[in-house]
């Protein structure tokens, strides 16, 4: 049976952090075994925030190296850079003709961005969901692994795909569905500042690329309290967060050891943090070393980007040709 297609993208605007890794990329590595996966670097999307050319280029290279270092295998999945596939922006232009101002203005992500950058409410921000829809449906993706924050954008992609099919009376696009992880794959990585979630914009992230000194510094600064006063006391959120992180990166016996100390009111958070920092470093160091080595190998990265672009273009141009035929863009020569 033909494998179902999965698509996911990430904007090249920063380093991957532990939340991205455990909540998303680690699962992509598993998915590439069972699905026809497309993972792309959304450099055109990131232009909406006007990065400097140098930052944009460096960001693209960094994300590419990070994806591969995390275990996404260019032989198994198609990794490509969005701007290498001009068919995407061509489909975006066509889809824009059937995307309406009202519905775009009502999108939560647009309203949020417009609030965040009031001096730069550009048309690209408004039509962001249209470009995202083009990214997804150009490969006729069946599944998109999305976080809660992206659900509405996926809903818009379904709407545009359905509208196109209906308008032209042809089932060109399958409906992309959200791919949700379950059980132990559904991890939310907490922040070290006592907040519920580690995130780039929360400013509390530990990156995979973080050097050991900086990991230690960030972990040692984690918010704690003066310690439990009763046996088996319930943990307040900042303390629970430390334990949750330990559960993710440390050995079960290490976690048990600190659980026991906590339950017996004998815990020293300093010791726990030292251990947690070392366990994070043990986890991230091999990935960090791979990232560094890949960043020094321009030739390999170029080869991966080129091969990914070719595979993605093959899939994208097949869809675009079908779309053009359907809408009546047909050559006279
Ligand atoms: P972002 O960098 O916030 O755009 O996140 C990209 C993806 O990484 C999200 O859609 C989530 O699937 C995942 N992710 C980000 N932060 C976390 C977190 N703290 N815990 C679990 N998953 C996360």
Describe the structure.
The chain is mainly α and 333 residues long. The chain folds into 2 domains: 5-187 and 297-327, Rossmann fold, CATH 3.40.50.620; 212-292, Tyrosyl-Transfer RNA Synthetase (Orthogonal Bundle). Helix content is 56%, strand content 7%. β1, α1 and β2 (36-41) form a beta-alpha-beta unit. The radius of gyration is 22 Å and the shape is elongated. The model has no long low-confidence stretch (mean pLDDT 95). Adenosine monophosphate binds at residues 19-20, 23-24, 147, 150, 187-189, 197-200.
Bound ligand species: adenosine monophosphate
DSSP E strands, number: 5
Specify the CATH homologous superfamily of the largest domain.
HUPs
| Uncertain stretches | none
How large is the radius of gyration? Answer: 22 Å
Helix % is 55-70%
Distance between the termini: 38 Å
CATH class of the largest domain reads Alpha Beta
Shape: elongated
Number of separate helices: 14
Strand order of the largest sheet: 1-2-3
What do we call the CATH topology of the largest domain?
Rossmann fold
Mean pLDDT: 95
Name the beta content range.
5-15%
Order of helices and strands: EHEHHEHHHHHEHEHHHHH
Briefly summarize what is shown.
The chain has 333 residues and is mostly helical. It is built from 14 helices and five strands.
Key descriptive features of the protein:
333 residues; Rossmann fold; 3-stranded parallel sheet; 14 helices; binds adenosine monophosphate; Tyrosyl-Transfer RNA Synthetase; mainly alpha; two-stranded parallel sheet; 7% strand
């Amino acid at each position: 049976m033909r494998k179902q297609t999965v698509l996911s993208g990430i904007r090249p605007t920063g380093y991957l952090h532990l939340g991205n890794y455990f909540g998303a990329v680690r699962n992509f590595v598993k998915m590439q075994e069972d699905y026809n996966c497309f993972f792309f670097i959304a450099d055109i999307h990131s232009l909406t925030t006007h990065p400097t050319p140098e930052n944009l280029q460096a960001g693209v290279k960094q994300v590419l190296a990070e994806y591969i270092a995390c275990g996404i295998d260019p032989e198994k999945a198609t990794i490509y850079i969005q701007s290498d596939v001009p068919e995407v922006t061509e489909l975006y232009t066509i889809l824009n003709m059937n995307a309406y101002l009202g519905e775009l203005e009502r999108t939560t992500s647009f309203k949020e961005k417009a609030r965040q950058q009031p001096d730069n409410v550009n048309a690209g921000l408004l039509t962001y969901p249209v470009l995202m829809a083009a990214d997804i449906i150009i490969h006729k993706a069946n599944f998109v692994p999305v976080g809660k924050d992206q659900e509405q954008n996926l809903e818009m992609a379904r709407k545009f795909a359905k509208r196109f099919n209906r308008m032209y009376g042809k089932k060109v696009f399958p409906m992309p569905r959200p791919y949700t992880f379950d059980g132990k794959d559904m991890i939310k990585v907490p922040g070290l500042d006592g907040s519920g979630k580690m995130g780039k914009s929360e400013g509390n992230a530990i990156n995979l690329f973080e050097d050991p000194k900086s990991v230690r510094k960030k972990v040692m600064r984690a918010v704690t309290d003066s310690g439990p006063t009763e046996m088996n006391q319930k943990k307040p959120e900042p303390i629970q967060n430390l334990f949750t992180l330990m559960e993710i990166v440390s050995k079960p016996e290490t976690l048990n050891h600190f659980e026991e100390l906590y339950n017996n009111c004998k815990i020293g958070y300093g010791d726990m943090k030292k251990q947690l920092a070392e366990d994070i470093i043990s986890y991230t160091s091999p990935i960090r070393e791979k990232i560094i080595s890949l960043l020094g190998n321009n030739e390999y990265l170029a080869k991966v980007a080129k091969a990914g672009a070719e595979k993605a273009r093959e899939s994208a141009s097949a869809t675009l040709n079908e779309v053009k035929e359907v809408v009546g863009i047909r050559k006279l020569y």
